[in-house]
Amino acid sequence: MLLRQLEPRTARTTAEVIKFALWPIAVMTVLNRVFIKAVNGFITDDFRPVYQASLDFLNGRPVYTANFDSVDPHYLYYPSGTLLIAPVAWVHDYEKARWLFILLNAAAIILAWYLLLRLFRFTVNSVVAPVLLLAMFMSETVTNTLVFTNVNGCILLAELLFLHLLLKRRDLWAGLALGLSLAVKPTLAPLLLIALVRGQWKVFITALGVPIVLTAIAWPMSKDPEKFLSHTAPYLFETRDYFNSSIPGNGEYYGLPPWLVWGIRVGMGILVALSLWLLYRYYRDDELFFVCTASGVLLAGSFLLLSLGQMYYSMMLFPFLMTVVLRNSVLRNWPAWLAVFGFMSYDKWLSERPGWQHWGRDLEYLRITFGWGLLVIVIFCVLGERYLAAKREGRLAFGIDPTWFKPLPSGAHAITTDSPSSANGSATTVAKPISVE
Q1: Please, are residues 102 and 79 in contact by the beta-carbon 8 Å criterion?
Q2: Which residues pair with 412 in a beta bridge?
Q3: How far apart are CA 280 and CA 400, in angstroms?
Q4: What are phi and psi of 326, to 5 degrees?
Q5: Which site among 24, 252, 322, 429 is 20 to 30 Å from 196 CA-CA?
Q6: CA-to-CA distance for 425 and 165, rounded, in angstroms?
Q7: Where is this region: Disordered (predicted)?
Q8: What are the phi and psi torsion angles at 432 (to 5°)?
Q9: For residue 219, which of 244, 259, 266, 183 has the smallest C-alpha distance?
C-alpha cells in the first residue's frame, strides 16, 4: 500500500505538469544553496564579525572596535541587536555556529515563503508554491544571504509577519515583529509610514518600544556601548564607495559631482513621493495591493536614495513582486521584470575578454542601481498613466483602475460622446454617475 502511494503519477492537467516539473527542481535548488554553496562560503564572510562581537559581548570585552579603513565586513549592529544575536556564540566552534546560522536563515526564508503564499491566498498545493520557492532560492539575494551568512533571512521573516499582522489589524503584534528587526538593523524602518497613513498607531508602541527596551537591557551588559555612538554610528551615516549600489554610493565610486548625485536623488525621490501619493489617494481601501505595493516603493526608494544599498537587500521586495498575481498589479509589463533581473539575477556580467573588462565591470556594478531605479520609474509611470487616463475619461471619482478589468461602481455608467474639442474628433468614454431622485 505504501509503495502504491509513492508511485509517481502522470500529470493530467497543465498545472500538474508544472508542479511535477518544478517541485524537484525547487527542492534540489534549496538543498544546493543551503548545504553546498552556503557551507562552502565565499571570500565575503558577514558572519565572522557577528560571531566575534557576540563572543566579546558574552565575555565582557569591547565590541565596537572595527577598523573602518578596511573593506572587510564590519560589525555595525546596535547594542540591542548584539543582545539578540549573542546566543550564536554559545556554540564555541565557529564553523558549527556558522552552519547553525545558515540553517536558521534558511528556515526563516522558507517560513517567509509559506507566509507569502498565504498572504496572497495560495496553498502549498497550488502551482504558485514551487514557482515561488524556485524563484526565491535562484535569486542573488537569497543565495548570497546564505553564502555570506548574514541575518537578512530573519529580517524577511519579520517583514512577512509584520504585513500579515498589519492587515489583520493586530497592531501590537505587528509592531513587535517589526521592532525585533529594527533592534538589529533599520532596513524595514520605512514600513512604519504604512502603519502611519493607515492610522494604526499602536504599531509604534511595540515597533519603537522593543528596540528601546532591548537597548536598555543591553547597555549595562556591554563593555563599550558608548563606542557605538562615537565610533560606529558616524560610519553608518557616511557614504562608502565599495559594495554600495545606492545612487550616492555609485556617485562616490565613479567620482560624480555632488550636484549631479543630488539632482538624481531628488528626481527619484519625487517619483517615489508621487507614487506613494497616488497609491494612498486611490488604492488605500484595496488593502493587500496598497500595503504590498507601498512597501515595495518605500523599500526600493530607500535602497536607491539612502547612503547604503546592497544587492541582497532586494529580498525585502518579495512581497511587492508577488503582487504580480493581482489583477491591478503595476508589475504586469516587461520593463518591470527587466528591472527585477537587474537586482535579483545571480548572473555575473564581469568579462575577462581584452577590451571588455571595463564594460563588464560597469554593467555588473550598475545593474543593481539601474534595476532599483527602473522599478521606481515603472511604478510611477504605470500609476501616472492610470491617473491621466481616468482624468481624461472623467472617472477619477471612481478610482484609477482601467475600466477593462474593473467595472464601474454601482450607480455609474460609461457613456460615449463625440468630443468637439478632440483634435481628431474621435469618441471618448466618460464615466458619469446616474442621477437618482
Answers
A1: no
A2: 433
A3: 12
A4: -85, 145
A5: 322
A6: 52
A7: 416-437
A8: -130, 145
A9: 183
Spatial distance between the Cα atoms of 393 and 350, rounded to a whole number of angstroms: 49
Phi, psi torsion values for 13, nearest 5 degrees? -130, 165
CA distance 245 to 268: 15
Query: Strand pairing partners for 431?
Result: 414
Residue corresponding to grid cell 508589475: 331
Q: How many Å apart are CA 376 and CA 381, to the nearest integer?
A: 9
Please provide the DSSP assignment of 25-49 as one string. HHHHHHHHIIIIIHHH--S--SHHH
Nearest to 146 by CA among 267, 20, 40: 40
Three-state DSSP class for residue 59? coil
The one-letter code for the residue type at 95 is E
The string of DSSP letters for 79-133 reads HHHHHHHGGGGGS-SHHHHHHHHHHHHHHHHHHHHHHHHHHTT--TTSTHHHHHH
Angle between helices 171-184 and 152-167 (to 10 degrees): 160
Amino acid identity at 174: A
The pTM assigned to this predicted structure is 0.90
Q: Which amino acid is at 326?
A: L
**Secondary structure of residue 431 in the 3-state scheme:** strand
**Which cell numbers hold the place of 226?**
558608548
CA-to-CA distance for 302 and 291, rounded, in angstroms?
A: 16
Is the CB of residue 261 less than 8 Å from the CB of residue 248?
A: yes
Q: What tens-digit pLDDT sequence spans the chain (437 residues)?
A: 455 555 577 778 888 899 999 999 999 999 999 999 999 998 889 999 999 999 999 999 999 988 887 877 889 899 999 999 999 999 989 999 999 999 999 999 999 999 999 999 999 999 999 999 999 999 999 999 999 999 999 999 999 999 999 999 999 999 999 999 999 999 999 999 999 999 999 999 999 999 999 999 999 999 999 999 998 988 888 898 888 999 999 999 999 999 999 999 999 999 999 999 999 999 999 999 999 999 999 999 999 999 999 999 999 999 999 999 999 999 999 999 999 999 999 998 888 888 888 888 889 999 999 999 999 999 999 999 999 999 999 999 999 998 877 554 544 444 333 333 333 333 333 333 333 22
| d(C-alpha 296, C-alpha 375), whole Å | 9
- Joined together, the cell numbers standing for residue 329 give 498589479
Burial of 170 (0-12, 13-18, 19+ CB in 10 A): middle
Cα 164–chain centre separation: 15
Contact 82, 54 (CB under 8 A): yes
Rounded to whole angstroms, how far apart are CA atoms 338 and 65? 41
The DSSP code for 11 is P
